[in-house]
Amino acid sequence: VVGTLTRKRLMHMHRSAVKIQSLVRGGLARKYVRRRRASMTKTALTIQCTVRCWFASRVARHLRAVRDWRARQEKAAIDIQRLYRGHKGRQRAEATRRAYMQDLQAYECATKIQAIARRNRDMKRVDRIRAARLEDMSKAAILLRRRWLGSKTKRRYQALLRQFIKNEKSVITIQRFTRGFLVRLRLWREACRAEEELWAAMEIQRVFKGYKGRVQWEHKFEEMWRREMAAAMIARNIRGWLARRRVGRTQRRIARVEFERARVRFRAAQRIQALARGIITRKITRQRHARAVAAATYVQRVWRGHMLRKQLWHQVLELRATMIQAAARGFVVRRRRLRLLACVLCIQRNWRQWRNNVPDSARRDAAQAMRERNRSAAVIQRRFRSHQEDREIGRIHQVGTV
Questions:
Q1: DSSP per-residue string spanning 15-42
Q2: How many alpha carbons lie under 13 Å from residue 223 in its C-beta half-sphere?
Q3: I want to staple 171 with a disulfide (CB 3.0 to 4.6 A). Which of 98, 129, 164, 325 is the partner?
Q4: Residue 161 clears pLDDT 80, i.e. is over it
Q5: Alpha-carbon torsion angle 374, 378, 379, 382, nearest 10
């Protein structure tokens, strides 16, 4: 029994020692790994930062050079386009200005002709209005003169009538002679009037026929002039439309030719740019790939050396740890052996003293008391466990009812 207890105690002590060693070594190893990892991480970050800064500076210089080169190319192309477009725009503006000046001159000529024609027409209209007004004024003046002469003659007639009443015989004689004279005068005047009326009628007919002829000629002339002007305007518009159509076709043909040339030049420029960019890109890619391969090789070499040194260091640490564990285990085993021997000797000595000093009846009483204590402890444990089970069941029932 003592040997079994001793072996169990030694095994427990051994497991405790191994557990303590594992905990201590694990803590030391984790602490060293954390310090080593922090140092290696800091070193790797510093190397990565330096390498990335170097790569970034080279890439930035290359991109800056490419950007400047492209900016110069774009500026040169824009300047060429601006100068060419300015030249073409000035040519188009000059052609437009000439066409505008020609159209303006034609418009001014047409406006002048229209102004002259309208002036002649207005002058004729004013002459007609003026003649009509003069005729109305003449008629009004004749009417007024006739009325005035009538009233004057009437007054004179009344005076003569009064004088005639006074000198009736003389008046009769005078009347006889006067009437004869008046009859002869009237006949003569009637003959003259008839001749004048005939001449006036012929003159009026001649003037009216001339006026009608002139008016008809003016209408015919104006109609003919309107037809000629309309035909000229239609011909001018048609010629302008044909010229604009011809010029538009020519411009579109020239524009298509220029566009085709520009497209060919643009495609050629694109092809040249693509070839040049391909060459530059392949060159840069080869250089970058070579630098990346060299850097990767260098990093791999450094990392493999580091890993090899780390592996060797771990092997050295494991060897040293194994040596330390062997020494510690040897020391612990020797201590255990010495302690076990001391315990065995002490147990033997105490057992021998107890066996020699304690009688058999006392030993039997002690064994009986130990068995009673064990039974009492078992009863107490059983009662306490049943009490715990009842409490747990009551708590479960209480929770279920709630």
A1: HHHHHHHHHHHHHHHHHHHHHHHHHHHH
A2: 6
A3: 164
A4: no
A5: 170
